[in-house]
Write a structure and sequence with these properties.
heterodimer; A: 547 residues; alpha/beta; FAD/NAD(P)-binding domain; 7-stranded mixed β-sheet; 6-stranded antiparallel β-sheet; 24% helix; globular; B: 202 residues; mainly alpha; elongated; GMC_OxRdtase_N (chain A); flavin adenine dinucleotide binding (chain A); FAD/NAD-bd_sf (chain A)
Chain lengths: 547, 202
């Protein structure tokens, strides 16, 4: 797998075939001097999805990723330690009262982005969250409604062949998931038993891993290494879904290509991007630039692209770029069961409850949360025990109860707060670019939500048969930083992801989110990308694109 | 640690090497982990032996004739400067943090006991490491490094990660290990595939 890190694979008219070891597919390539319709920075849930949509709509597209272009079947070993190359590990400084651990759990580096190692949970937003200020009295309204995004949720689910239950208990009534649900593993059954005993709903989670064959990909074999790369292609990451579609439709994917700057013309429009590939800085000309680097790299690139016309960074006249960064609070509760759990088998999160996302009764806080069953692998689990303070003989002995352990982890909504943000530090990275400094502190409301979630999880896990419960704390996901809105004064982009300040500069990733919801964000990012793709095509037809 | 007991005394994950649970890619990675132990490149000889003494307390393996190597892999990571993707405000970059942290523990031992950490009795070593974990340290030995953060974020985290990346560690906890392409079939409570570890009930 090391050649993918040292040498670009996608070049000279071909790209790796993700479905066949050692094989290639044809790929259209563009010269730097050729002005393409869209240069997209990032190929994850936002950028990779949008690249396919735009290429299929007939636009010329070059999509850049700072990381490698993997072939899952030949590159991914079944080993935690060997999979560290899937993460964004360039230096970042993390501060605030509750500094976020960055790197492995909330970043991706490589074509397909973090969907290459995500846990595949594919949930829709609670419809009210799109209007949380007007309907629920907290947070911020989105500039679009659930109804506007609904067809795109369906499109994203269809594109990923989501395997889900016949009836999902929460949200607006929906048609069946494309593929049938997976059997729930033991750690999921503990959650199920606990929920049933205390009288709340639970459900097998809709997952982006195949429960039946799809093209050249086999169904999931339940090997359990889903937080790392999937070696069988059952996982429907962007790498094996939208990226092959994008290439087939004429898009070029440029791997190991780090975009360091968006180039601006004297007329206040973007002219393309500067990127570093094989140690050389080059420039790609483009009519439009889309930034899709996720909630840290997207603001960082806009800020690092400051120029005389935009001294505070691009699209940042109101000072909002990088602000209102959110994460999901992730308190965990763990315990020991008499039965064997062996949670290393099958996807780590197979069952969950959104009860407290949809029921607001008796809450002493705004917002919601879900929690899911878990399946940590040994080093992950050992580090969790170490974070609990265990070491030495005590840690080694505790690890022998691995197969009898089960736990629950929250996906807890956090409020958008201006002081939680991404800024530039003075320190520079290997490309000579200023590195990001991330600041995060929970609000009082966030803390009340966490406490409530903790109590609920204790209740469910104990009812599920676990004893000797104990707590952990972590976070997951990142959202916000370039929020969308109706008003140029208090948002960075409009409902189509177009920046208010620069008409040919767009954002398409999790940084768009005005609030964080209480579920995993990837499906919503992909639904937004599908919608933005359609909107751009419509605007082009009406002659509104190059305004 | 004479008291250590595993419920899986007869299980050896490496026996699956040639079964459908292991593929070529995984065998290559694990073969290197077993056979190609890296030489010292980053740490000084003094830092290396100090870290060995610390690792022997944080991840003790007294019953093994050949303990799972830990320090070589940390040294390799430092030599290649493979960072975790963030550092907290107040922490220096990874390499400096390790240098300062090891110097801090060495200084702490001299200050408290007038001797080298490596020459302390295990109980005294444990007590000292516990104090570092809690941040109860002599500030002069550590410069501006937050000792408790160094202990939990780097030292302990890396040592346990290296240990539990080794097949011997997988065997003693009954982990199924690599599982591609075969995966698993029986997923429910108290269900076990024939190629999984069998627990010995004592």
């Amino acid at each position: 797998m090391f050649d993918a890190i040292d040498q670009p694979r996608a070049q000279d008219g071909r790209a790796p075939d993700v479905f066949r070891p050692g094989a290639w597919v044809q790929m259209r390539c563009y010269d730097d001097s050729e002005q393409v319709d869209f240069a997209i920075v990032g190929t994850g849930a936002g950028g990779g999805t949008l690249a396919a949509k735009l290429a299929e709509a007939g636009f010329s597209v070059v999509a850049f990723d700072a990381g490698p272009f993997w072939r899952p079947l030949e590159d991914f070993a079944s080993d935690e330690a060997a999979q560290g190359d899937l993460y964004w590990t360039d230096e970042r400084i993390s501060g605030g009262a509750d500094p976020i651990q960055l790197g492995s759990n909330n970043s991706g580096r490589g074509v397909g982005g973090s969907t290459v190692h995500y846990t595949m949970i594919a949930l829709r937003w609670r419809p009210d969250w799109f209007k949380s200020r007007s309907k629920l009295g907290y947070g911020r309204d989105w500039p679009l409604s659930f109804e506007e995004l609904e067809p795109y949720y369906e499109e994203a689910e269809e594109s990923l062949k989501i395997s889900g239950p016949v009836r999902y208990p929460w949200g607006k009534r929906r048609k069946r998931y494309p593929y049938r649900e997976h059997p729930v593993n033991a750690s999921g059954l503990v959650l199920a038993r606990g929920c049933e005993r205390i009288g709340i709903d639970w459900s097998p989670l809709p997952l982006a891993t195949l429960s039946a064959p799809r093209g050249m990909a086999h169904p999931c074999v339940y090997r359990g290494f889903c937080k790392y790369g999937c070696s069988t292609n059952a996982k429907q990451s962007v790498l094996v879904t939208f990226v092959p579609r994008a290439i087939a439709a004429g898009a070029e994917i440029r791997d190991l290509a780090m975009v360091g700057r968006i180039e601006m013309g004297k007329d206040g429009r973007a002219t393309g991007v500067s990127y570093n590939r094989r140690g050389k800085w080059r420039q790609q000309k483009a009519r439009h630039v889309v930034v899709a680097g996720y909630a840290i790299e997207t603001p960082r690139l806009l800020l690092n692209s400051a120029c005389p016309e935009f001294p505070d960074g691009l699209a940042n006249d109101n000072g909002l770029v990088g602000t209102h960064l959110m994460t999901h609070s992730g308190p965990g509760v763990w315990g020991v069961l008499d039965e064997e759990i062996r949670s290393y088998k099958a996807p780590p999160c197979m069952a969950g409850t959104e009860h407290w996302n949809y029921s607001d009764e008796g809450k002493d806080f705004h917002g919601g949360y879900a929690f899911m069953s878990q399946g940590p692998l040994p080093t992950d689990w050992a580090q969790t025990l170490a974070a609990r303070g265990l070491w030495g003989a005590a840690l080694r002995q505790e690890m022998t109860r691995y197969n009898h352990t089960a736990g629950l982890v929250l996906v807890g909504e956090t409020e958008p707060q201006a002081h939680n943000r991404v800024e530039l530090a003075d320190e520079k990275d290997q490309y000579g670019l200023r590195i990001p400094r991330v600041t995060f502190s929970y609000s009082e409301n966030d803390r009340r939500l966490i406490e409530h979630g903790r109590k609920s999880m204790h209740q469910v896990l104990a009812a599920g048969g676990a004893h000797q419960l104990w707590d952990t704390h972590d976070t997951s996901h990142l959202m916000g930083g370039c929020r969308m809105g109706d008003d140029p004064k208090d948002s960075v982009v409009d409902a189509d992801g177009r920046t208010w300040a620069i008409p040919n500069l767009w954002v398409c990733d999790g940084s768009l989110f005005p609030n964080s919801g209480g579920v995993n964000p990837s499906l919503t990012i992909q639904a937004l990308a599908c919608r933005i793709g359609d909107r751009i095509a419509e605007m082009a037809k009406r002659g509104e694109l190059d305004r | 640690m004479s008291g250590f007991k595993t419920p899986y005394p007869d299980y050896d994950v490496l026996k699956k090497w040639d079964t459908p649970s292991w593929n070529e890619q995984t065998r290559a990675v694990i073969k290197r982990r077993l056979d190609e132990i890296p030489e010292r490149r980053f740490l000084s000889e003094d830092e290396w032996t100090l870290l060995e003494a610390i690792a022997a307390r944080l991840m003790p393996q007294p019953e093994r004739e050949a303990p799972v190597p830990i320090v070589p892999w940390i040294d390799e990571k430092l030599a290649e400067d493979r960072r975790p993707g963030y550092r907290y405000v107040g922490m220096p970059p990874m390499r400096e943090a390790w240098r300062q942290g090891l110097a801090g523990i060495a200084g702490e031992a001299r200050e408290r006991h007038g001797t080298d950490f490596r020459d302390l009795e295990p109980d005294a070593q444990d007590a000292l490491l516990g104090a570092v974990q809690r941040g109860e340290i002599d500030g002069r030995q550590w410069g501006d490094l937050p000792a408790d953060r160094f202990f939990s974020e780097l030292l302990l985290k890396e040592i346990v990660a290296v240990y539990y990346s080794h097949p011997a560690a997988w065997s003693e906890i009954g982990f199924g290990g690599p599982a591609s392409p075969r995966g698993y079939v029986r997923l429910g409570l108290d269900e076990r595939d024939p190629w999984e570890a069998e627990e010995q009930h004592v």
